[in-house]
Amino acid sequence: MDWIREHKNRVAFIIAIIFLVAIIVFSILNPGKIPFIGRIAQSATTTAERPLAAAGSEVESFFYGLTHFRDIQRENYKLKNDLSELQQQLNDAKLTDAKYEEFKNIANELNYSSYDDSYKKVTADVVAMDDSQFFNIFTINVGSKDGISKNNIVINSDGLVGRVMSVGNNWAKVIGEVDSAHAVSFTILRDPSVIGVVEGNGNGALSGYIFDDNKSILEGDKILTSGIGLYPAGIEIGRVKKVRTTSSSDEKTVEVKPSVDFTSLKVVTVLVN
Length: 273
Hints:
The protein is an alpha+beta fold. The chain has helices at residues 2-6, 8-29, 35-109, 115-118, and strands at 120-129, 137-140, 153-156, 159-167, 172-176, 183-188, 195-200, 206-210, 222-225, 236-245, 252-258, 267-272. It folds into two domains: 1-81, no CATH class; 110-273, Thrombin, subunit H, CATH 2.40.10.340. Helix 2 packs across helix 3.
């Protein structure tokens, strides 16, 4: 008791604190019973929540920003890949255009003709095929009355078909490029400086060789008429299937698959000059 009397002020303060805390707790648990104290408690609670809410908002913003950044990174990676593919396509197109221009320049220097701008085109139906396995010779339903003459070039949408070998008034016979009596000078699309000759090999394909053994010709190369001889430049002949080099002379021989399917030939175009 003496101690309490000596420290009565301190004791009174502690009791007041305990009492105030009890009132605040009671007010929180029983809102509306002590309005004034409830508002104080609510204000204190709200004040304490504000920094926590702000911190939560900052954390949420951070993770949103991180996710958004990753999305942007993925999109940038995709765009770079797309750009790289487009650049490669552009380079390929430029290469093809460059080769085409080189081919045209060579043709112009040697006074070659192009079938696109130098000939009248007469469309014809195939009305009869010979009885050989590979349909080397066939008949079409146009003739001299349509301006057709011997050695006119015959093509279709796939490439070189052959040439007219004989003509009647309203018919003509065509010998196909796959016939063994049929030889064509060629170049390759990839390198127009390569020149060679192919002829029918009797089994529905073409065989031949290139003149300069130091030049390169590859399997898959597309070959076109060179413009040397009877055929105008730039008509597709076929694709190289095989390349062989003879051990004795280093001569490069080729086997070519024709672009034209002679087994299903129905419509052709005759180039009339």
